[in-house]
Amino acid sequence: MVANFSTIPTWMFDTPEPVTVQDDPAAIHWDYQQGTVFRDPGLTEVAEHFERIGQWYITGGFTDRFGVRHESGRNDRFAYWEVLCEPDVDHNLSPEVYTRLYDAVVERLRVLDPGMKFVGLSLSLINFDPEYFWHFLDPPNHKDGIPLDAFSYHFYATPQIFDPAALSGNDPFEDWHHVFFTQADGFLRQVQLIESIKRHLSPGTETHINEIGTFTPDVLNPDPVAPEGYWALSAALTAYLWSRLTELGIDLVGVAEFVGYPGMVYGVSLLDWNTGEPNARYQGLKLLLDNFGPGDKVFRSGTAPTLMSPETQVHSQAFESPDGRRRILLVNKYPEPRRVRFADPVRTISTIDATTGDGPAVTRHVENGEVELGPFATAVATVEPAAD
């Protein structure tokens, strides 16, 4: 489990006026995170704030600034603690300030659980600035003894937003798949650059790309309805990115988000926030988790794409598990069905696509080594065991 408590009380920043909150605890405050300069430049105040949160969950409670004790009775343990979320857009913290804050928070939290690891940066990459990586991943920029266990960043594909309140004023859904996969390929080139920086400065640090997903352009629509086929397209993009990132050696890939709620960004949810039922994004993720795992070997199926020679309309990647099971992941990036022929003896294929709705993957037998992939299909083909 990874702990992440990202909101910093706005009163810890210098702001022209105090930032007020509504009485309704369910109200969304898009304008809450104001201020870019901490009122305590030494960062002790904000570090102690996160220390108290850690004490609440890890050591059973904390004593507040006024000497009052608050008991939680909790004794939780976290594999990782991620320090903030998207500080490059929330309060626009510079690489230097963020690194100092990371050190101050980690210095206090690691005492609570010496076995807990830490994740830094957690960048949005909305405005790609390599200096965050050059500065944070350079050990001399940290206090002695502060670990650089892992760092993280995010990716979301989205059509260009013309009208954030309605679908009708934006690009048609028929164009979205081109935009999504083009953006994904651009992101993969950024990943290669970031990994190069990491290998140069801190090769032992893990890379966590722990939020990937897609947006519909009507991000502020009060009553959103996704276009037919959207969830399957989003699942296909997720599977494609996971496959390519696995090939690049990324340590962790996370899919956002489990469930949202009205007023938030609708297109990233894995569950329908009205019914709690899974959508095709969820089913596509489940298909990956059910068939692939740690220790799998990755084998490129076909030629690796380049800038001058992009990938075909169907992405494929072969995997072999530690116990010898062989599977092939296939992703149809297009809204039209695509036929594929297997060179290996494939027995069955499990698929979710734009025709399977929100249900689980459909498994069928493969006849004569050929199969048709449905629109925006995410599919896993099972290869017959090799003869002894």
UniProtKB/TrEMBL annotation:
Residues 312-380 form the D-apionate lactonase C-terminal domain. It comes from Nocardia flavorosea. This is D-apionate lactonase C-terminal domain-containing protein. InterPro entries: ApnL_C, GH. It comes from the Bacteria. Pfam families: Apionate_lact_C (PF25839).
